[in-house]
Amino acid sequence: MTMKKVLHAIFYVFLYGCALMPFWLLYRVADLAFVLLYYVVRYRRKVVDKNLRESFPDKSQAELKAIARKFYRNFADYIFETIKLLHISDKQISKRMTFENVGLIDRYVAEGRSVAVYFSHCGNWEWAPSVTLHTSRKPNVGIVFGQVYRPLRDKWTDRLMLKIRSRFGSLSFPKSTVFRDIIRACRSTGLPAVVGFMSDQRPSHGDLIHVVNFLNHPTAFITGTETLARKLNMGVVYWDMYKPSRGHYHIVTRDITAEIAERPTFSVTDQYAEMLQTTILRDPSLWLWTHKRWKRPVTFEDNEPPRH
What we know:
The chain is an alpha/beta fold and 308 residues long. Helix content is 43%, strand content 18%.
């Protein structure tokens, strides 16, 4: 066994040990992680401060600092709550990750329609796949559940995250092959699919450029989600994330469109951007501010016309 494998084994034992902790103890460890991230390591503090300052120019320095501190507390919670998925019961997660209006997804599926779920890096997005515990149909019985992801460079970490994300029966589709993978999954099972798209990142190379005014920035949004939903004639919804209290999250499923073919091109992307901004403005500390979202500035003149 190589030294790298030994270190991975030791690290996994540590992670699983954390997952075995009761929540009250897990959050004490998260409190320590917050101190390390915010005060000692200062993990991406310059990026976070710059993003907040430019996104909220009307807020005072004290207000921005309060948002940043709360963000890092949420971020520390997110890390250890995600580790907890290695050892958590369905009963526990069902109480801590709740859903509202999930019947909307059920209705689309009952019509034989696949569903595109617009989502974001708000709250604890890794707990969201537990929606399978709340829908009337279960994975690979009456529906295929999945999420789109960008593979991580470190293969061991990538395998670990795929294991965590499959905890509740959903599949993970690499972004580069998602269209083909969804069609294959639906054809092989004869079932519609409900697929989550984390569409708040910077667009990948090859995506059509569509710029919107978002958080006081001209921002290029991912357009691939809308493009794929149009190709597959999917129903489209948005997951609006709330954090009522520590260790508890709530998602409201909000309808975007049932008839995407009748909507103007990029109008769905525009609506998602507007809904996401509303979510962020409600509680800025829930969004993942460590992203270098505006590393490559764009202008509205960069907008590309739809491809046919």
